[in-house]
Amino acid sequence: MTPTLVRTIAELRRLVAAARVRGASIGLVPTMGALHRGHAALMRRAREETGLVVVSIFVNPTQFGPHEDLARYPRMLEQDCELCGRERVDVVFAPPVEEMYPAGFRTFVEVEGLQNVLCGASRPGHFRGVCTVVLKLFNQVQPERAYFGQKDAQQARILQQMVRDLDVPVEMCICPTVREPDGLALSSRNQYLDAGQRQHALSLYQTLQHAQHQIAGGERSAAVIRQRMEERLVATPGAVVDYAAVVDADSLQPLASLRGRVLLALAVKFGATRLIDNALVDVPE
Ligand code: PAF
Predict the structure, then answer these.
(1) What is the CA radius of gyration of the chain?
(2) How far apart are the two ends of the chain, measured CA to CA in Å?
C-alpha cells in the first residue's frame, strides 16, 4: 500500500475530515523522518488501534540549537514513504518549513519546570520547539491518539504535561524503546556513528542494565547509582558525558533516595553525535 503524500495543512485536513465522515478514528505518529524499526513499532500500534494512520515527517528547525545538526539531519523521504507503506500507513504529512512556520510566526509553547533539566539544560529552547510543533500537529490532525517512544523520556513527559495543561483532547500512547539485538536503542542519529563509536555506544545500555541490577540488589542511594553510571560512561573510549541522572520520573528532579517511579537517564556524545537512553524503574516504597 502506498500512503498518500500530503504537503499542505489544507489537504491534510480534507483527508482527515473525509476519514471522520467514514467513522474512522485518527492516529498520529509525529516523526522527523529517517525512520527505523522504532518508528515502525509506533506505526504498527497506531494501525492496530486507529482507523486512519497519519505519520508526520518534518525536521523541525525550532527544536535545533544554532550549533546542532539541523543541516545534516538525515532526510530520506522516498525511503521513509516505503517504510510507511509497509506498515500500512494511510497518510504521510511532509510539509515544507514555510507551511509550518509561515512568515510572521511568533507563538511558542513552553512547559515550565520540566524543560530546562536533563537534555533541556544543554539544549536550551529544544523542548519549546518540540512542544510548539507537536501542538501544531495536534491542531492540524486532531488525532484521538498520538504515539511517541519512551526512548525520548523527557519529551514524552513534557508532552504529557502540555496535553494535560492545555486540555488537548488526545490520548498519549508512549511505546517501549526498540533496541538492536545487542541493546543499543534505535535512533536516527545512530547512522552518524563509525564502527568504533557504534561499539562503544553500547555502554549506555550496559550502564543502565548495571544500575538496574544494583537497584534490584537493594541499593537505594541515588548518589551511588549516579556516580557509578557516570564512572562507567567516562571510562568508555570516545564518550563525552553530558549527563547521567537519577530523577523522579514525574518531576524530573534529582532524588536523594530511590523510591517510587525512578528515571535513570543518560546523554553521551561520541564525536558530534549525541545519544540518549533511559530506563524506568519502579522502586518499592
Ligand atoms: O521525537 C521526534 O522525532 C521529534 O521531537 C518530534 C516529536 C517529531 C517533534 O519534532
Answers:
(1) 19
(2) 50
Ligand 1: residue whose CA is nearest its atom 9: 130
| Residue appearing with cell numbers 523541525 | 60
Domains and CATH numbers, the chain: 4-175 (3.40.50.620), 188-279 (3.30.1300.10)
The cell for 229 is: 553510571
What one-letter code names the amino acid at 114? L
Query: Could you report the per-residue pLDDT of 156-197, keeping only the tens digit for each?
Result: 999 999 999 999 999 999 999 999 999 999 999 999 999 999
Contact 209, 282 (CB under 8 A): no
Q: Which residue has the cell 492545555?
A: 166
- Cβ atoms within 10 Å of 28's Cβ, excluding its own: 29
Which phi and psi (to 5°) does residue 88 adopt? 60, 40
Give, for ligand 1, the residue of 152, 159, 276, 278 to mutate: max count of ligand atoms closer than 8 Å to Cβ.
152
> Is residue 245 classed as helix, strand or coil in its secondary structure?
strand
Strands (E), 196-238: none
For atom 8 of ligand 1, the residue with the nearest CA is 31
Report pLDDT digits (tens) over 198-243: 999 999 999 999 999 999 999 999 999 999 999 999 999 999 999 9
**Side chain identity at 216, as an amino acid letter?**
A
- Let me know: does 28 contact 56? Beta carbons within 8 Å: yes
Can you give the pTM of this predicted structure?
0.98
